Amino acid sequence: MKQTVESMITQANTWFLAGNTHKALLSYHKALQQAKALTIIENYIQKNKDDIFEDQDLLKELLHTKYHIRLVPGAISAILLSIKKQVEEKEQNKAYQRFKKNILSKNPKTPEQYVDALLQQNEKPSWQEMTFLSNMLLEHRHIYYVCDVDQLCHNQIRALELARFERSLREKKPEKFSEIDTMTGHEFEEFLIDLFTKMGYSVERKKQTHEQGLDLLLTRYGEKTAVQVKRYNKPVGNKAVQEANAARVYYRCQRALVVTNSRFTSSAKQLAERCDVELWDRKQLKEKIKTIK
Fold it and tell me: Does residue 212 contact residue 251 with C-beta atoms inside 8 Å?
């Protein structure tokens, strides 16, 4: 195998020096694959996403000493750019498949339902998400290009905002914070759902079992937050922080939050700081309520 790889590299080097970059890269790719060095380069690119040329001299030396791959000047840069493009295409396809699975789990039939499914995940979808949705619609014979999806999202978001506004006019809100203290746990969650919605979050309430320690799942700007809700008459301890942290891991959230109408014990605050769990006690909750009034 050693000789075969070396001969393939020699041929690729000849093509590269002659300016036939396309043929050279195909031959380099086959040689790297045969030498079982392709994974090393892919891992290198993942590690050095911000600057793939930062350690290219070390990579070139590793390829030479361990895999018997001797490259002519300039070849390693061309190889890195070529494989980086392939890695990005693979990642893009994986991201699309994940996105597609999430959208189809809502069983949408019409373009409006597809957009509703998207907005349930993220009320301010990125251009990439709208491109993905356009691709899905085109696959299902709905002729909606990205600009059409963008307009449809705008219309649906506006309709949601108006519905929330109307609901806020119909619902009676607590006049005093002390009224929150008399709420049931269920009513307190309902109150927080309304609060988070007004703050621009998409809110998913978990089942009454509160699986994996999760009460509410918030989404905004593509970022997910696992929320533990505690309506207590006594200080909230470590368990709530541990549950919020566990829910963040389980649901792959970027943030974890515990909200209470009470306060937190000193040990809960220390644990939250170590685990990077955000805490809203009585005082902070009051401040959040003021911002949306």
Answer: yes
